Amino acid sequence: MKDLVSFLSAFGIVLDPTTSILVVLGIIFVFVLIVHFILHRVVLRTFEKRAQTSQHLWLQIITENKLFHRLASTLQGVIVNIQAVLWLQKGSDVSEILIIAAQLWIMLYSLLSLFSLLDVIYNFSQKFTITSDIPLKGIFQGVKLISSLIIGIMMISRIIGQSPAILISGLGAMAAVLMLVFKDPILGLVAGIQLSANRMLKLGDWLEMPKFGADGAVTDIGLTTVKVRNWDNTITTIPTYALVSDAFKNWSGMSQSGGRRIKRSINIDTTSIHFLSADEIQRLMNARLLKPYIDSRSKEIEEYNRTHNSDGVSVLNARSMTNVGTFRVYLTEYLQNHPRIRKDMTLMVRQLAPGAEGLPIEIYAFTNTVAWLEYEAIQADIFEHIFAVVDEFGLRIHQAPTGNDIRTRHTSSCRCVGSSQSPESLT
Question: Domain named Mechanosensitive ion channel MscS C-terminal: which ranges (predicted)?
Answer without folding.
Answer: 331-397
